Amino acid sequence: MKEKIQSRFDKFYAGLTHAAQARIDAFWAGFDCHCRLGKWEKQRLREDFEAAILYYLDNGVALEQALERVAPERLGGFYARPAVLWFALDDAAKIYPLSMKQNRMAVFRLSVYLRQPVVPILLQMALTFTIKRFPSFATTLKKGFFWHYLDTAKRRYCVEEEHEIPCRPLKISHSGSQSFRVLYYRNRISVEFFHVLTDGTGGMVFLKTLAAEYLRLTGVQAEADDTLWDSDDLPLPAEYANEFARVPHSEKTSGFVDKPAVQMSGQLAKQKPCRILHFKMDAAALKAAAARYHGTVTVYLLALMFLSGRAATDETTGEASIQVPVNMRKFYPSPTVRNFALYCGIRQPLSMEADIPALVENITQQMAEKASQAAMGEMLAATEQLVGMLKYVPLEIKQPVASLVYGFLGDTIFSNTLSNLGVVSLPPAYAAEIESMDFVLGPEISNRASCAMVTFADTATFSITKMTVDPSFEEMMYRLLQADGVQVRVEGSAFYGD
Amino acid sequence: MEIEIIYPPVDKRYLRRIGWQRIVKWVCLAAAPVCLFVNLCTGGKAWSVVVLAALYTFWTLALSPDMVEYNRISQLVRTVACCCLLLWLIDLLLVPGWAGTVVPIVCCSGLLAAEVLLFTDLERQKQNMRPLLLLIVLAIAGAGIALSVGSLARTWPWLALGVVGLASLIACAAVLRRDFLRELQRRFHTK
Questions:
Q1: Which chain B residues are closer than 8 Å to A243 by Cβ?
Q2: CATH topology of domain A275-492
Q3: Which of B2, B80, B27, B108 is nearest to A474 (CA)?
Q4: Which end of chain B is least crowded, N or C, by CB within 10 Å?
Q5: In chain A, which residue's Cα lies nearest the Cα of B121?
Q6: Please, where are the H alpha helices in A274-394?
Q7: Any chain A CB within 8 A of the CB of B182?
Q8: What is the DSSP secondary-structure string of A227-289?
């Protein structure tokens, strides 16, 4: 295929006028200045440029315009300089490489659905132009003697066609391996991140920048605004800072351990996740349904999740608990794309009444208390304290202990998770080219489901990552939403592995 | 509830590979107690310990390889470490009297081979120096211990290993210069 592109490009070049050949020569001279990678990597990057230029010409774009869209100046200095930057992991990220196993890795996924099928060649170029804006993503995970760290990796970051299970562990072990993957399938662009790099908010910044860059390459022109990062801007240190170290610390600390929560009763699947489901809803209808109970969308969905969780378990006593990640940027505004989120646990006894208004009221109270700045400050102080205590313990000792402890405790204190990224905005010209977005959490150890939500334009997408074949949870969710007048369109995957 | 499928069918090779790995892992886990049991029943030398170490070697190199930093230097160093453990156990439990000479020679060869791997692809492999540094530290420490407990006539292989370790350290520092210091700074950070 690559040879074919190269020979096609050579043929195309040979058929050009002298003036056009001179223009192409100048283009490659510019490319050589901006790309000082090793021979093999440089060749692959050059082939990407050739393929993109040929694609444009095949689709009626003038040569000059094609060369302008993929101008090598847009590579900046990223590929022209040796890799010297490195990043210590932020405090929230430190646990992820310690607790991972061959078949268990904290991965989450963000997707954007375009109105047109994805052109892989242009997506590859979009990634090449975008990655320089995110230096902490252009890295590979390494082992230190005390902690893991991220080491800059100058390489061609590649896109892949999707043909495997979502959120499967990333291969991060080889020299220069990337800790995220960019996938495409039909009209969908997905990015799966190892949590060590970023949280949902940071990941969404990357996806938006990548999608906008892709749309620019397809010829969409949009006015820049503050909803989007410009991939040509220089990265600022604040954008990859460990904000846990910067924010003021509470005197009090809170613990991480809690009572075990009741789990849904479905048998855990061998292959996790065993299914992905997306409930696509009208955002206004969902908001109106939540408003009828005097709650926010998050609180309303939590209430429905508690009721659905109860329908999916045979237990009659105990408490269900839902983990709710809390974006710390709302308390301490920051442009960082590193992890800057903590979590709280919202609990309900199984003996609760199946009364949505009462549940909403109770959950609203719990959220006000447990997701408050003070509560998060205590958890942040506890995190800092733990990291401080462990910092001189060699990694070879920390790793097996953390893996063991995580394996024992793991996610047993929660029954489920709800991560709501909120409303995502883009400049109108780009937004017009996008249908919807979704956010999928990776599989858990003992939880049977994990839920995430994101709203784009008028579509709210509630995604469920299933770890059991038992459909009770999602069927009850569906029924409750329909009963409240929220029309749901269900999309998803077939069952994996069974 | 009707579900519209919007995900591609999964490549079955991935699922099959996971399935096979799971089976081989269980076979390994089952083989360990069986060996111990047979050894205890039949009596004699503790050969089952050597088998357990061999199973561990297979497990760590093939079934559960490093999830971070799986590269040619790390795999070489891991192989050398596992071989040394096996040789030492065979000497201790089955055929005594030779590991004191053979183990440092194997380590020394491993160290030299790791240096070759580093310097033949310096640009990429300089990010993979951690296992080499570990081996160097162990080599120098081994030489130090040997020197303090035995006579020169008996401990010369260990001393030779220590000298090779020291030379390797100096070679790395001399060739990489600032990169070497930067590498140490990253590797030993406590942030």
A1: none
A2: Chloramphenicol Acetyltransferase (3.30.559)
A3: B2
A4: N
A5: A38
A6: 283-292, 297-311, 356-370, 373-390
A7: yes
A8: TS--TTSPPPGGGG--TTTTSPPPSS---S--PPPPPP-SPBPSSSS-EEEEEEEEHHHHHHH
Q: What is the CA radius of gyration of chain A?
A: 24
Q: Report d(CA A398, CA A409) in Å as an integer.
A: 16
Closest Cα in chain A, distance from residue B9 (Å): 7
- Predicted complex ipTM: 0.91
Band (A26; pLDDT cuts 50, 70, 90): very high
* Structure tokens, A90: 């932020």
CA dihedral A173, A175, A178, A182 (to 10 degrees): -100
> Which contiguous run of DSSP H or E holds residue A87?
strand A86-88
DSSP 8-state code for residue A169? P
Can you give the pTM of this predicted structure? 0.93
Give pLDDT tens digits for B43-53.
Answer: 899 999 999 99
- The domain segmentation of chain B, as residue ranges, is 96-191
Closest CA to A73 of A261, A232, A189: A232
Nearest CA in chain A to B71: A174
Interface of B with A in 139-178 (CB under 8 A): none
CB within 8 Å: B3 and A144? no
Residue A406 has pLDDT above 90, yes or no: no
Contact A157, A131 (CB under 8 A): yes
CB nearest B68 (choices: A97, A163, A271): A97
Spell out the domain ranges in chain A: 1-69, 275-492
3-state secondary structure of A394: coil
Nearest CB to A144; choose among B7, B8, B186: B186
Interchain contact B44–A (C-beta under 8 A): no
Q: For A151, which residue in chain B has the nearest alpha carbon? A: B127
Q: Are B67 and A101 inside 8 Å of each other by CB?
A: yes
